[in-house]
Amino acid sequence: MIWLTWRQHRAQILVTGGLLAALGLLLLGSAVEARLYVAGHAPPGCPGRAAACWDLALALSERYDAVYTLFGWMPLMAPALVGVFWGAPLLGREYERGTQKLAWTQAVSVRRWMLVKLGVLGGLVSAGGLLLSAMVALWRPVLQREDWFGNIGVFNMVGVAPAAWWLYAFAMGVAGGALFRRTLPAMALVVAGIALTMPGLFRLSEHYAEPVRTVQSGSTVLNADDARVVGWAWIAPSGTELPSPPTGVCAHRPDTGRSGRNQEAYERCLFGKGYRYAIYHHPATRFWRFQWTEAAILAVGSVAFAGTAVRRTLRRRV
Amino acid sequence: MTAALTVTGLSVRHRRGWALRDCSLSVPAGRVAALVGPNGAGKTTLLHTVTGLLTPHGGTVTVAGDVAFMAQDKPLYDTFTIAETLTFGRRLNPRWDGAYAAGRLAELGIEPERKIKELSGGQQAQVALTLALARRPGLLVLDEPLANLDPLARHDVMRALMGEVAERGTTVLISSHVVADLHDTCDWLVVLNGGRVQVSGDIDDLLAGHLMLSGPDELRPPAGAQVIEESRTGRQVRLLVRGAQVLDPRWNVRQADLDELVLAYLRSPEASALPRLSEVGA
């Protein structure tokens, strides 16, 4: 069975491996180049919190704009591609070509056929996701980026998240093939499913833990690196939280263009009158808690999809 | 007489009603059974149930030994080479006769490095048949094995099949909607019509038990005879009867042939020729 799994899916395995290797080389290249750039341009004391270091980080981001664009699409594209090319054809193509009548009438049972395929390919997909995660984790610090948690795109590419997403998309593709008995509708299901699950889980992630409430009297900007801000409110001098920014206390003129001067003046005025600002957020220390919560949700989804596929396959209909 | 295949009370429901309704039949070991019936009679459904591709809604299927199946369009993996197709058979079947499979394809001049999709329809049928035979099954099930083959390929496939059967004593169940295809090769007949088993039995016994009578149309059917089919042309009547002793000399009597027998039953769906329970061997 393992031989058959390899023979039937070697194209996906090799192409995915090749793409991961190419991405690895790209990241390695950009990292080496970035190191050289930093060595040539970094003011003394960087990386650090000095303003000069911030400029350096900005220059680095601009330099690697193309890589970042690729990077920005990857959390969405990579799982979708895995589901489309690994998951959807697993059953869809067998049904389309009628070869399930050959495969499922051999001495090896259908249950074993399904379990080996799901096990081997699911394992490889998860390993691929972990490899991507490891490469990204090695690459980001070189570019002096340490925002693992606050940026949802990055969050989904590090830790165990890519493995969970890839496995989820794979299982969804297999289930689609079992339901539709065709490859193309199963592929469409994966694309739609990923496009819905990702923003859905992002919204849900606010509730993975009780947010921390930080009250500030002087700035509306949270002074915590890489936190996920989920809400904010003004607090009246009496101590009650206001559902919307107070009106009639300070003049609030709209800003024109990209300037924030009027807004800043308004905020300064409010702080001066004893108002305070509450920010609800998840600090970066919750990284692993959020990673495992998301992975657990996706794992439950994967098991549900795989279970559906196995059940529909075992309850035989030709 | 031990049965290689016993089917009792089998029922399969499709979206639009019953595909099989309370089907019972039995094929003794070592027989080559023909499963015939018009298109849509439920032949493929019955074979898929026998091979485990379909779970029936009711009834049981009992098979002595392994079942090998060659499905209707002879599905194979297009992108596999012949060698890989044989590896497929070896990896998925613990009882695999690799030397036989390789030898048989070499004899047919099908080179192992060629891809399945490069082969002709006849060659693909031979590869599919080899894949089924090399498993050394107790029961070999073939769904319309001759469909889409030219006459030469039909002949080759049938001859190959019969050679193997004669040598190994494998029990075979072949479906076809063309009775003529199975004339010379089968010794057991199952007629399926509208999801029901109409006829099941040894072909020689069936032929011996049925008579074709013709005579003037004032004649009454012989006493005790089951009239399967009756047709009148002018002042003549023709009857296909079962279990009759014909004493009236005005009847012109001859044995029915297999085509006539099958057609007569298919035209009279309410008639049936089924073995008594003791004959089933279940």
Automatic annotation (TrEMBL), chain A:
Regions that span the bilayer: 70-92, 113-136, 148-171, 183-202, 290-310
Keywords: Membrane, Transmembrane, Transmembrane helix
Statement: the UniProt record of this protein carries the keyword Transmembrane: yes
Protein name: ABC transporter permease
Organism, scientific name: Nonomuraea montanisoli
TrEMBL record, chain B:
Keyword Cell membrane: no
Domain of life: Bacteria
GO molecular function: ATP binding; ATP hydrolysis activity
The ABC transporter domain, residue ranges: 5-219
Keyword Methyltransferase: no
Alphabetic keyword roster: ATP-binding, Nucleotide-binding, Transport
Cited Pfam families: ABC_tran
Protein name in the entry: ABC transporter ATP-binding protein
